[in-house]
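User: two proteins, same treatment. go.

Assistant:
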Amino acid sequence: MIASEDPFTFDEKVKSVKVKVGQLFEDRKLTLLSSQMKQSLLSQVQDDICGLSAKKQNGGKVGRLKFKSFVNCIPLKQHENTYTLTRKHGNNGRLHLQKCKQTLRVRGTKQIPEDAEITTAKLLKRGDDYFLHVNCYRFKKTVSLEKWEKREKLGLETRHEIGIDLGIASQVTCSNGLKVKYNLPIDENIRKYARKVSSTEKGSNNRRKARVKLQRAFAKHRNRKQEVINKLVSCLDLFCTDICYQNDYVAGWQRIWGRTILETSIGGLLGKVKTLPTSREVDRWEATSQRCQKCSEKTKHALSARIFRCGTCGHEEERDVHAAKNICRVGMTEGDEPEVIGDVVHAERVEPAYKTPVDMKTAAMMFEVLKNIPFVKVSLVVEAGS
């Protein structure tokens, strides 16, 4: 495709392609790729070229297109045609690919709900392992009803709003006093394998083996961070009917606290929260850490000051918790309305109440769930006399 004069007019019905071997080209037949796989690969290359063009127009550095000796992703655009996934007993299944006579064993099919509609998929190669990423669709009303049934079993109230403040010392601070810290440092094996890759000869078999080990180490580290983020967001979504967050500029934090942002993946956590249908966004420039929630007057504080002290009314409170409460207040009164699903009615735009018996009950239940998540340290800040 890249060797053709125009990749956007490339014929996807081609039966052979030119492969660069050294300085020469030779024709090789395509025996295993079906017509739909060819169309998907062509669309993927075209989308990548469009993305590089947009990046270049925005001032980014883009190099010339290079030949690839391998493909790590094959899109499968239609279930029961391009591919067929059959579920067996337990966690096993069978995968049949178009133009492939032998079926492949698949593990992990229990992750797909029984009532889900399977659509597109991607066959991925990471290191020496192969993965199948399947896109599924479920009715929003069904998912929402399952959530509310879980809330009823736990004895939760019909309404509980919360504000979350993201930070560096404490990654997540909630308006009900919960402070969540987690940190997954770079594994020493990653550094060791990176040095091994740089010391081996380019194109050698030893370099390929070292790259596979490096990819596995990175995948293990990435999966651990993703597991922590998924469990945090799942806990917030279950216990809270409305989640207010501030759209912080995490990319700017990366330039100052690069290692901390890498080891905590705060940007990934914020992106997950944004996808929740019950989330309410607060503007980035809202002075949530400076405005007093009692008298609404601003008092500037240095980043090193961890206690908020109002210069007008004298109100004092832990800074991150105070900011989270302001985020909750602004989100519930001014933030964007969350998506309404089925018969679920979200909380009205009212001033949220703090430290009520219901609020502390939910905070205690969330504390019990969060403390069991690996790599997570959680604490509960309670004011005296509350």
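Protein 2:
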Amino acid sequence: MDVSRSTEIRVGIVSVISIALLVIGIMLGKGISFSPTQKSVAVRLPSSGGIDAGSPVVVLGVRRGTVTQVRNDDGSVLVTATLDDIADLKSDAQAMVSILEITGGKKLEITPGSSTTPFNPSTEIPGRVAADIGTLVGVLGDASGDITGLIKRLDTISMAASDLLRDGSVVANIKTMTSDGALALTDLRMFMQNNRGALTSTIQDLKALTSELRESVHRNEPGVSRIIARTETVVKNLEGTLSKADGALANVDTLTTRVSGMVNDIRTNKSFLNALMYDEKLFGKLDTTLVTLQKVLKDFGRGGVNVNVELGHRK
């Protein structure tokens, strides 16, 4: 009885230890940790990218935690993950869903960031989904139609080029153009060889002329400056004269306005000048008076004036 019970106890202990090791192995395989510094972070993705609960979370290639939840939220995907430590994460941390192995599987890779502000666990880490083999295959499938059309167009172009080259006149024209181009290059080379000395001399003359022009400008710069200063003075004087002329014109305008006003007053008021200029009766009387006065003056000139003056006589 004692031997049998001892054996049962040993078997039970071995079984418990085996179960505990199995549970620990599963936890280690899933990345489950009971670290006291373990924190929960939220990652916002445009799509899940194939990641699910239990996927590993790595920081700079080092496994640091596990994805605990993946759910749709407000038109995007919200991923919740637990990390052993987030002390090195910054406020500009980024996340990316990438392929875990060539055979399959996904991982959530977090880049800590470079900001001086530490990461706040109550905020979300923005993330994106990296292209994988499946995505590339889908893109190639979408582009296959365009590639087929492009190949057909290239085939059409090659056939047209073949037809064009079969035409003897086109080939002859191409040969002629090539020959003419070669002759032109030969003529240009010969021209350069025959006139190298003249061209060199012309370039040297241009250099000398440029140097002389520079020296002339430098030498005559004070005189040019004086001419410019005098020109500026003349321009200022002309501006003053124009200002005075403008003032004189303004005065003339004022005088013209006043004369017009006076003429208008003479024309409209009942004054002597108005009557003299516009009253025909008064003008006739003045004319008669002037004629009479003229006759009197003529008589005075012919016979003089008889003046009878009594002095000291009393009636």
